[in-house]
Design brief:
There is one protein chain. The chain is mostly beta strands. The protein has one domain. The chain has two helices and eleven strands; from the N terminus they run βββββββββββαα. A six-stranded antiparallel sheet has the order 1-5-6-7-8-9, with no helix packed on it. A five-stranded mixed sheet has the order 2-3-4-10-11, with helices on one face. β5 and β6 form a beta hairpin. α1 crosses α2.
């Protein structure tokens, strides 16, 4: 494992391995990039560096500005996974490209139904994280800007949805009497 500081500046983690061209849908790397003071992102990518799975993590201000231990494993024909671990939180993604099954924070999903997610309450030890599937998006590869920034620029409704989910999680609606 390595120690990495995820800072609000330009921090991109990409672990890449050589994968033959016939395995274009294999998981071969990952990345992470801070979106704001309270949101960071993490993704698993294929050999062409296009994300296959994108996750946004929300928590208290500056929760992601900490030292991270990084671990990952990418092997031909096996699920690929990456994990960032700190004193405040553990971010873990896994993807089996043969079955199309993804794991986001230990919950299973089909990437054909959702390839983009929001995890609320990250880094809040007294609150169980909530995973919200956001849908299927065309996930762009990082170019002059990181992949999650390009995704949010191409889909402004996605950032609006993330902001709505964050706001509703911080101000839950009261349960009506009798329920």
């Amino acid at each position: 494992m390595r120690r990495v500081s995820l800072i609000a500046g330009i921090t991109i983690l990409v672990a890449a391995v050589i994968v033959p061209a016939e395995d274009r849908f294999a998981v071969s790397g990952f990345g992470g990039y801070p979106i704001s003071r309270s949101i960071t992102s993490m993704w698993l990518a294929g050999p062409d560096r296009r994300p296959l799975l994108m996750v946004f993590f929300h928590g208290p201000d500056e929760w992601h500005n900490t030292q991270w231990k990084v671990d990952s494993k990418f092997e031909k024909g096996k699920p690929g996974w990456a994990e960032l671990r700190s004193e405040k939180a553990t971010l873990r993604l896994s993807l089996n490209t043969e079955t199309g099954e993804a794991e986001v924070q230990s919950r299973d999903f089909k990437v054909s139904v959702n390839n983009t997610f929001l995890v609320l309450h990250t880094g809040e030890p007294s609150t169980q994280p909530t995973i919200i599937p956001l849908g299927v998006f065309d996930l762009p590869a990082s170019k002059d800007q990181p992949a999650p920034i390009l995704l949010l620029q191409a889909n402004p409704e996605l950032m609006e949805r993330i902001n709505r989910e964050v706001a509703s999680s911080q101000h839950p609606q009261p349960v009506p009497p009798g329920r």
